[in-house]
Specification:
Layout: H1 3-6, E1 15-19, H2 23-29, H3 34-55, E2 59-66, H4 74-97, E3 100-105, H5 113-125, E4 132-140, H6 142-158, H7 169-175, E5 186-189, E6 208-211, H8 221-232, H9 242-245
Helix pairs in contact: 2-3, 3-4, 4-5
Bound molecules: farnesyl diphosphate (FPP).
Residues 20-25, 38, 41-42, 45, 62, 64, 69, 83-84, 87, 136, 191, 216 line the site of farnesyl diphosphate (FPP).
């Protein structure tokens, strides 16, 4: 039986987040430049998002560019930004066809203007779509996000907009970049690395973690189905006992 056939569509993860890793190694194995890996990585983005939408997953968040990625060689950063613009232009039709709403999280001020313009245009054009919310984490770092949350809340306390006693988990949630997104249920990282790399630290508190050796440009729809099947075999206890769940 294929992995797709094994999926119980009534128990899908609501929110899948992916650390797309291994583009560079994929290219190196073929004697090509790193960008060749990134270019092929965009094809995996396309098919993975499409597979999630077809299944009925409501939220998918992709780690496309981290705050730490700014430290890569200038040429790689520039080419990645160009690739992002090209992909946004190319994928708008697929997003519309599949009723997918585009969203972005991260420190948008750090992005080149050209990327911002393209990004905002696609966000605007897809804003009424409602089958799947696709969030791109761009210039995103979880620690930076948490610092911005602390600053915003402390400003509000200082200006008597909120009292210190009222600060709880929901107040923090409301100040995160991900304020409109549900918690992550399944976090996938490709390429064999088993790290979180400053991605959605608060939001993955109870996520199931799934690591695969597949390099991102090789990631297929079937790989996504396999991750979901694996997720569905796990018992999510949220701190309770097995008996309490039954
Ligand atoms: C990690 O591989 C990948 C990235 C840092 C960038 C991800 C970007 C894409 C898949 C393309 C553009 C994205 C969208 C949303 C259109 P790596 O370079 O760290 O690989 P390595 O660990 O093998 O060197």
């Amino acid at each position: 039986m294929s992995f797709k056939e094994q999926i119980n569509t009534s128990r899908l993860p609501n929110h899948i987040a992916i650390i797309m890793d291994g583009n560079g190694r994929w290219a190196k194995k073929r004697g090509r430049l790193r960008m060749f890996g990134h270019e092929n990585g965009t094809k995996s983005v396309s098919r993975t998002v499409e597979a999630a939408a077809e299944l009925g997953v409501s939220h998918m968040t992709l780690y496309a560019f981290s705050t730490e990625n700014w430290n890569r060689p200038k040429l790689e950063v520039q080419t990645l930004m160009k690739l992002l613009i090209k992909s946004l232009r190319k994928e708008i039709e697929t997003l519309q066809k599949n009723n997918i709403k585009l969203n972005a999280i991260g420190n948008m001020d750090a992005l080149p203007n050209k990327v911002l313009i393209e990004l905002n245009e696609v966000i605007e054009k897809t804003k009424t779509n409602n089958r799947l919310v696709l969030t791109l984490a761009l210039s995103y770092g979880s620690r930076e996000e948490l610092v911005s949350v602390v600053k915003e809340i402390s400003d509000k306390v200082k200006n008597n907009i909120i009292s210190k006693e009222k600060i709880d988990e929901s107040v923090i949630n409301e100040h995160l970049y991900t304020q409109n997104l549900p918690d992550v249920d399944l976090l996938i990282r490709t390429s064999g690395e088993q790290r979180i790399s400053n991605f959605l630290l608060w939001q993955i508190a109870y996520a199931e973690l799934y690591f695969t050796n597949v390099l991102w440009p090789d990631f297929t729809k079937e790989d996504l189905y396999q991750a979901i099947v694996n997720y569905q075999k796990r018992e999510r206890r949220f701190g309770k006992t097995s008996e309490q769940l039954n």
